[in-house]
Model the fold of this input.
Amino acid sequence: MTFDKTILITGGAGFIGSHVVRLFVNTYPNYRIINFDKLTYAGNLENLSDVQGAENYVFVKGDIVSAAEVQKVFADFDITDVIHLAAESHVDRSIEGPMEFVMTNVVGTVNLLQAAKDQWKNNESHVFHHVSTDEVYGSLSDEGLFTEQTPYDPRSPYSASKASSDHFVRAYFHTYGLPVKLSNCSNNYGSHHFPEKLIPLMINNIRELKPLPVYGKGDNIRDWLWVEDHAKAIDVIFHKGEFGQSYNIGGLNEWKNIDLVFFLCRLMDEKLGRPAGESEKLITYVTDRKGHDMRYAIDASKLASELGWKPSITFEEGLESTVDWYLSNSEWVEQITSGAYRAYYENMYQNR
Ligand code: NAD
Ligand code: TYD
Done:
């Protein structure tokens, strides 16, 4: 079978990557999708059990930090395009150990850029789409939104590593003409989200009647977007975005952490048939995260006006479907949180 494109999707076994792989495998039978993933603690092939047998899907276990492995996958599959999601993604882990973030997020990205530059002869017929975060813009006070013009001001080791990777992507565009596109998205939520992040952690702890650790006073604000809407935005930008441009992606959906935790408690009391107010008793205020960014909020009007993307569902709908997914997939949660992760989490929690 011949394919119109062979797209290397890095980090396809992770949370967002698995949604992007599924969307592309199912929507574009004329594209061959190569999922290149190291399967760290955050990567799980169970996330993609439904596309495993598809004719246009191939999984390759590999590490973007190894230039040799990256060059090999480019050569073996004659890669025509890249959607780059592989990363170390958790801020708390970056505070504990920044070097892994430098290696994967910075060195790994440069290895991919270099392989694309070496392999691609005619830049116009390829796309290198780099998936990044709004955290590169720093932290907002009460007013304002991040636009594509907001100066970079990363403040955690995670966001500093992602900002650095964004700079390298732009440098390859300006210096070598590599056909890059960038997107910077707000906080995602949805199915298959690793339960060290706020929303799935709270859902699981509510279900298991464990403490709900709210950092500081819970006043910090995040702008939440349903992961499937992020995947659709990546599809639109990959196909229609302009080379060298960045696009902000967000849901105009700001929530204070504590309000979100209360909302989840109420929703889950209803779903689990618990008396009203039962789960709220689990809320536990713990020591704040070091350097905790106060507020993120995205202006996604460029993406809406130029490429016609907008979120497809409300936060209430998305949260309900997410809670339902976690309640009916407790085996998935059990499988990925057993062993090393459980020990890590218990240790983190005890130290707060
Ligand atoms: P995740 O941690 O769930 O998944 C990361 C994936 O990358 C895993 O499958 C892991 O195995 C893989 N990986 C890690 N190191 C690797 C390496 N050296 N080589 C190959 N594969 C490796 O992350 P996520 O939340 O799905 O985020 C995906 C991307 O989207 C990241 O680049 C992140 O910065 C960005 N992003 C995330 C969010 C969010 O809310 N989660 C928001 C905006 C942007
Ligand atoms: P997180 O999901 O780690 O995403 P990010 O730090 O990339 O925005 O955290 C979201 C918010 O929730 C952030 O303000 C930190 C806070 N938080 C808690 O209060 N308790 C928790 O256990 C976690 C994981 C996060």
